[in-house]
Amino acid sequence: MRQLLHGVRIFQHRVFPACRSQFEQLAKGQAPSTLFITCSDSRIVPELVTQTAPGELFVLRNAGNLVPAYSESEPSGEAATIEFAIEVLKVRDVIICGHSHCGAIKGLLHPETLADLPSVRGWLKHAEQTREVISQLHETNGAGEEHLTAAIEANVRLQLEHLRTYPSVVDAEARGDLSVHGWYYRFETGDVHALNEETGAFVSILHLLTQESSVA
Predict the structure, then answer these.
(1) Distance, CA of 97 to CA of 182 (rounded, Å)
(2) 5 with 79, same domain?
């Protein structure tokens, strides 16, 4: 706690004064361009990865970057956040970002490790289809990094499917007002890959930027 208190003091005395006008402007309202859905994992810092400033990202975090399928009878914090981001804030993009070494997906693949975590086990029902898909693709119950990465990527695809069950998402996409994206972030290397929904493969964002530059 002492480290956090010291950090607040540095923010108040060194950082905030230099950004005072920016925060005063933000007090009038927010207009983020993107809803960024990612894991609660402490190793993931969306603003650092995307190099964005306060007010530019509307961030939703939970264990495993999960999006419960839309349900009128079972509203959730995730549903409320998505609805508000699209209907009120009018975000133009939604990113679902999975990451390397995800503990939630490890638990999904090895449910025996969740015996003493009933809430986590229950929450991961929103990713159960991911486990089924990976089980079909891999005959053995793999435990290696490649197996985990495949599951994390499959989970991003599944959560994009869930996202598209939301009426607000469907309508905004149909109007051309919204684009949705799947990312995979490997924090130990800094690499970020984006899902190509036509091929189902994740492609390096640096590769995509290089392609755009060559076309331009």
Answers:
(1) 6
(2) no
